[in-house]
Amino acid sequence: MGKTGFLLPLMIVVLLSTFGATLSADSPNITTDRLALLALKSHVTHDPRNLLGSNWSTSASVCNWIGVTCGSRHQRVTALNIPGMGLTGTIQSHLGNLSFLAWLDIRHNGFHGSLPIELANLRRLKYLDFANNSFSGEIPSWFGSFTQLQRLYLDDNNFTGVIPSTLGNLSKLETLFLHNNNLKGSIPAAVGNLSNLKWLILDNNYLSGHLPSGVFDHLSKLQALSLTWNQISGRIPNSLFKCKELVYLSLHNNSLEGSLPIEIGNLTMLNQLYLYGNNLEGSIPLSLFNISSLQVISLELNKLSGHLSSDMFDFLPRLLLLSMSENQFSGKIPTSLFKCKELEFIYLYNNQLEGTVPSEVANLTSLKSFHGIILRRCFHDYLDLNSPNWSWGYANMDEVVTTM
Ligand SMILES: *[C@@H]1O[C@H](CO)[C@@H](O)[C@H](O)[C@H]1NC(C)=O
Ligand SMILES: *[C@@H]1O[C@H](CO)[C@@H](O)[C@H](O)[C@H]1NC(C)=O
Ligand SMILES: *[C@@H]1O[C@H](CO)[C@@H](O)[C@H](O)[C@H]1NC(C)=O
Ligand SMILES: *[C@@H]1O[C@H](CO)[C@@H](O)[C@H](O)[C@H]1NC(C)=O
Ligand SMILES: *[C@@H]1O[C@H](CO)[C@@H](O)[C@H](O)[C@H]1NC(C)=O
Ligand SMILES: *[C@@H]1O[C@H](CO)[C@@H](O)[C@H](O)[C@H]1NC(C)=O
Ligand SMILES: *[C@@H]1O[C@H](CO)[C@@H](O)[C@H](O)[C@H]1NC(C)=O
Ligand SMILES: *[C@@H]1O[C@H](CO)[C@@H](O)[C@H](O)[C@H]1NC(C)=O
Ligand SMILES: *[C@@H]1O[C@H](CO)[C@@H](O)[C@H](O)[C@H]1NC(C)=O
Ligand SMILES: *[C@@H]1O[C@H](CO)[C@@H](O)[C@H](O)[C@H]1NC(C)=O
Ligand SMILES: *[C@@H]1O[C@H](CO)[C@@H](O)[C@H](O)[C@H]1NC(C)=O
Ligand SMILES: CC(=O)N[C@H]1CO[C@H](CO)[C@@H](O)[C@@H]1O
């Protein structure tokens, strides 16, 4: 053992005592966390079940407060979990002092106002759920500083402005929910840097412009993409068909144009496809009908055309819903359709189909609705985002109609 054998322990002692002194003098500790939470509590204007009022008492340890979790190692607050308590109020800059916070869940409350920049100090955040409150203002660009973030839920608020391209910094992000806000502008190309993304849900905003052509090039883990109810135009970029893990793809009610490429058949895990209410044209590539996991094919209200071939549904044993109404398809109703034993809904009205409904329709014992020519829409799709599994539902089913 050389000189370092004696020097090293000595150096550590010296370092520790200097560092230790700084630590107790200015470093945040559990008292800081208590003050931060008391500041939050004091700006809660409505607490209908008096949960914070009765429980967040100054005589109890902050680590025993309802919704608060402390880490065992540092005795600092690591999680704040207060969803659905009916709380109303604003978020104070003090919250940014919870420097060990990894989990912040205040969803389903009535918090409002804008978010203070001090929250950018929460560098350890992995989970941030502000969904279903009344936050307004722009999504702050400093959200890009949450480099550990895996899940971000800002849906069902009143956020305005554009999606900040700094979100492209969140390299660990797996879930991004921004639906049901008032966001505008185009989807930033930086989203294409989120290579761990599994769920990207941007429904029901005012997003417009083209999808950046290579935006999906590196999103190879994407399982759910929903851009429904926006104003997105242009073609569906071919890079989308590299996302081979896609289970749920919903682009309906936009202004997408062009035809569907043969590469759509590369999405072999696809379970639900919603493309209705766009300006898509041309024929549907047969590769789509090779995706045997498909349960929902919803293409109505486009300009799609082509002759339906009798065997096109041979490989879709799980199909539950087929909607191709209000397009320009021609030919006869394919008899292979009646091999899809689980079919519940068939919509083919307002096309240029000919002939009659084949008698095999009687083989479909699950059938609830077969709209041949009746001009009516009576289903509404939704993705149950709270279910651990993929599920779909429908509403407004008035009656079973079997006509042509
Ligand atoms: C926390 O830090 C403050 C100074 O910032 C100090 O007065 C207090 O004693 C510390 N509390 C604990 C529990 O270490
Ligand atoms: C606050 O709530 C927690 C969790 O329900 C409970 O363990 C604790 O005893 C409560 N504290 C007070 C002071 O009511
Ligand atoms: C916590 O944050 C507030 C506001 O950002 C600040 O004024 C305060 O000094 C911070 N520190 C402590 C220990 O509360
Ligand atoms: C929002 O939260 C309220 C109150 O908890 C709840 O009733 C409502 O269903 C929630 N809405 C959504 C869209 O989750
Ligand atoms: C993005 O990350 C880089 C490095 O990780 C950092 O320097 C930069 O400040 C971050 N940008 C934002 C907006 O947080
Ligand atoms: C959202 O913001 C707009 C404009 O600021 C306002 O008119 C509207 O009432 C807000 N909606 C909600 C649900 O807070
Ligand atoms: C994506 O990340 C790369 C490398 O970190 C960076 O050079 C590029 O500017 C980023 N692209 C966008 C659109 O943010
Ligand atoms: C689709 O799959 C084929 C065969 O596996 C492959 O050659 C092609 O590059 C894929 N296309 C896309 C857009 O991923
Ligand atoms: C459908 O799959 C079969 C069997 O894997 C294959 O032979 C055929 O070429 C595929 N058809 C299309 C249009 O992709
Ligand atoms: C429909 O059922 C009948 C009798 O059960 C059977 O002969 C026929 O092959 C079935 N047709 C189809 C398309 O499955
Ligand atoms: C989710 O799917 C798994 C595997 O398919 C199944 O075992 C489980 O029962 C499903 N859960 C629900 C709530 O449907
Ligand atoms: C084609 C289609 O369904 N368009 C609808 C899209 O959504 C807007 C409302 O956001 C409706 O007005 C359109 O009719």
TrEMBL record:
Under the cellular component aspect of Gene Ontology, which terms does the record hold? membrane
- Domain named Leucine-rich repeat-containing N-terminal plant-type is located at 32-70
User: Topology relative to the membrane, per the entry?
Assistant: Single-pass type I membrane protein
Protein's cellular compartments? Membrane
**Which residues belong to the signal peptide in this entry?**
1-24
Domain of life, per UniProt, equals Eukaryota
The family assignment reads: Belongs to the RLP family.
Q: Name one Pfam family in it.
A: LRRNT_2
What are the UniProt keywords, alphabetically? Answer: ATP-binding, Glycoprotein, Leucine-rich repeat, Membrane, Nucleotide-binding, Repeat, Signal, Transmembrane, Transmembrane helix
Under Gene Ontology molecular function, one entry of this record is: ATP binding
- Lineage start: Eukaryota, Viridiplantae, Streptophyta, Embryophyta, Tracheophyta
Q: Which gene encodes it?
A: LOC111276297
What protein name does the entry list? Answer: LRR receptor-like serine/threonine-protein kinase GSO2
